[in-house]
Amino acid sequence: MDASHVHRHPVFCTVVPPHLLDRIARSEVVRRADAAQRTLEQDALLRTRRSVTTLRGIAPAVGTPVADEPRRTIYDAQHRTRLPGKKVRGEGDEAAGDATVNRAYAGLGATYELFLKGFGRHSIDDSGLALDASVHYGQEYNNAFWDGQQMVFGDGDGDIFLDFTVSIDVIGHELTHGVTQYTANLDYHGQSGALNESMSDVFGSLIKQYSLDQTAQDADWLIGAGLLGPNVSGVALRSMKAPGTAYDDDELGKDPQPATMDDYVKTSQDNGGVHINSGIPNHAFYLVASELGGKAWERAGRIWYDTLTGGELASDADFKDFARLSVAAAVTRYGDGGAEHQALQKAWSAVGLG
Q: Which residues carry out catalysis?
């Protein structure tokens, strides 16, 4: 597909799902409710305004080398909502005096490194796209998002949610929305939207595992560990190992994610439950990675990356489509009847998509 072919559709991907913020906005604690309500209103405004331009399959110009180093720029939004804000750290600059700035810089670098060294991908678009991020967005903004062009991090309210740069998998999660945007371009509703979210959780977790040099057995398989405040009864936003167990809290409610198709949630909220039903393909990936063992990005991650970027995954793909194509990708790369093929078949069957 040539560079003149541009897909335009409204996409706004946040790490904290609206159903959680809706719940907090009904809190009897006024400060908590107000912060959640402000975040919901800002997210709704951005969804309405944002029309993301998606370029699929764009390669660098012939003869133009793509560097094997990231091009990072961190901006300080200074608690406003105008982006990008004031530049505070560029590529190669010394560490700033602001830990949030430095965590964002490191997270962008870790994401770039996994995609390059693990999958041979040069940045989000595979053409060396510059990685920009803004920190200190808004007032007690309880979210982080990819807006189609850059990363944005809120500071959280310091009560329910802490600084959104503390979890490297959250940074990787949001940047992976960019990778999906430039490849399969999965529609952000229903099962294709849940796959979109799941891709971000999968690679977000892999980025954390890669940065910590963890095996599949060592990993916690949590998304957003360290993000919840000390008084919240929970460990993270989501668990890939055990969907539905990440939190059970008076303010947040109970984690609604299903692990199998038996508990698939039909809802009109959150674009058809994209942050909820993503637990099913998330769990399938966990099962494959655990079955294969070792470093999860080396085989399980490679199969998921091949499926996402192989050109066969339609923008409106459902779970069964992804399961079928992932098995085919495993056979193509590792052969029929091997451990990888068997692990895929076993995992998809376990979640009800055999």
A: 174, 275
